Every structure is written in structure tokens, then in C-alpha cells.
């Protein structure tokens, strides 16, 4: 049995700041002032510093000597690099699920996520839709049983969430497109069709990249 400890205070602060960055409330290049965060959340400065180090690992914040912490920029190079790498990581997870599932009950978590995505789509709830989109990869972790892959994806996921949220918020991306992709991906996993899994995920990441870049051009 695996026990998950409650999030530490610095993780909670990091999550709070990450959500603000993902939603665009903290803009690219904006400085995050430790003292302001300390006062706003009534926490210690040390906890805020630890939170900022977490966000640096997750590519949402850059910490520069004598300049402090700033929200990382979103530009064409970073978006293309991120989408290309995440695409390969998604493919590894897709392969793992296809190779390791043994009964349809193994795939129930993915079916439940699919249902939640449809509910978020109906409510036009972008925040929930983005969160559940990335819940898919977490449901795949047990099949891969690869802590290095999991850690890498987890550290990159907030940056991808930020880009994805921007595309949806700017109406460049469509929730229906993602739902169609997810349905095709599940079909490929059920058939253990590895070439199809790669084809679907490569096309998705390429399309996502272009949509994010289109959204960036409008900001």
C-alpha cells in the first residue's frame, strides 16, 4: 500500500502561484516579490523561497541573481521545444498502457476521466478540462512503473498546462478536438496498436503547438 503525505506548506504555496501563472494572472516576465507573497498568504519568507525553487524546477519561474524570481516567458522556441518533448513522453506512457493492461477494468480510470472531460466541456469549464486532460497521464503512471519518466512529466506538466490553458482561453483550441483525440487514443490502446498511438499523439502535439502559437500571437 502506498501512502501519500499531505502537501507541505511550500508545495501548497507553489500550487497557489502555479495556478495564477497558468491562468495568466501573473504575466510572463512579471516579478514575483517574496515579501508580497509572504504578507498575502501569511507564511514565512523561507517557505515562499522553497515554493519558488519548486516552480523553477517546473519551468514556471526563473530565479536570477540579484533580480529575484520572474515568471518565465512564453515564446515560439520554448513552446515548440516543450510540445516536442511532451509528445515523446506521452507516447511512452501510451505504449506502457497498451502493453500492460490485462482487463477492461484496468482502463476504467481512463473512462472516468473521459466522462469528466465531457462534463467540463458541457460546462465550458476550462480549468477543470485542463486539469482532467493531465489526469490522463497520471492514470498511466502505474502501467509504466518508471519513476524517472513520472518525475520528468510532472515537472513539465505545469508549463504544458499553462500553454494549453492559453490556447483554450484565447479560443484557439477546441475542447471537442481534444475529446475526439482522446477517443481515438483509447481505441488504439484497446487494440494495442503502437503505430496508431504514435500517430495520434504526434498529430495532437503538433496541432497543440500551432494552436498555442496562434494564441500567443493574439496576446
From TrEMBL:
PROSITE patterns found in the cross-reference section: HTH_GNTR
InterPro entries found in the cross-reference section: GntR_C (IPR011711), TF_FadR/GntR_C (IPR008920), Tscrpt_reg_HTH_GntR (IPR000524), WH-like_DNA-bd_sf (IPR036388), WH_DNA-bd_sf (IPR036390)
Keyword set, alphabetical order: DNA-binding, Transcription, Transcription regulation
Matching CDD domains: WHTH_GntR
GO terms for MF: DNA binding; DNA-binding transcription factor activity
Domain HTH gntR-type stretches: 7-74
Keyword DNA-binding set for record: yes
Superkingdom in the source lineage: Bacteria
Pfam families: FCD (PF07729), GntR (PF00392)
Protein name per the record: GntR family transcriptional regulator
Organism (species): Pseudomonas parafulva
Lineage of producing organism: Bacteria, Pseudomonadati, Pseudomonadota, Gammaproteobacteria, Pseudomonadales
Amino acid at each position: 500500500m502506498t501512502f501519500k503525505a499531505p502537501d507541505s506548506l511550500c508545495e501548497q504555496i507553489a500550487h497557489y502561484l502555479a495556478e495564477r501563472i497558468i491562468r495568466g494572472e501573473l504575466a510572463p516576465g512579471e516579478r514575483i516579490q517574496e515579501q508580497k507573497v509572504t504578507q498575502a498568504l501569511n507564511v514565512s519568507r523561507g517557505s515562499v523561497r522553497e515554493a519558488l525553487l519548486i516552480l523553477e524546477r517546473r519551468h514556471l519561474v526563473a530565479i536570477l541573481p540579484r533580480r529575484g524570481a520572474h515568471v518565465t516567458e512564453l515564446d515560439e522556441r520554448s513552446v515548440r521545444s516543450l510540445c516536442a518533448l511532451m509528445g515523446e513522453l506521452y507516447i511512452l506512457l501510451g505504449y506502457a498502457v497498451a502493453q500492460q493492461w490485462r482487463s477492461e477494468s484496468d482502463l476504467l480510470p481512463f473512462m472516468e476521466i473521459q466522462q469528466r472531460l465531457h462534463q467540463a466541456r458541457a460546462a465550458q469549464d476550462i480549468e477543470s478540462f485542463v486539469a482532467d486532460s493531465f489526469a490522463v497521464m497520471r492514470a498511466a503512471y502505474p502501467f509504466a512503473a518508471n519513476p524517472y519518466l513520472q518525475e520528468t512529466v510532472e515537472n513539465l506538466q505545469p508549463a504544458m498546462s499553462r500553454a494549453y490553458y492559453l490556447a483554450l482561453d484565447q479560443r484557439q483550441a477546441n475542447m471537442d478536438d481534444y475529446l475526439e483525440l482522446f477517443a481515438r487514443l483509447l481505441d488504439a490502446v484497446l487494440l494495442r496498436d503502437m503505430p496508431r498511438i504514435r500517430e495520434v499523439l504526434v498529430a495532437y502535439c503538433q496541432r497543440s503547438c500551432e494552436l498555442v502559437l496562434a494564441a500567443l500571437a493574439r496576446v
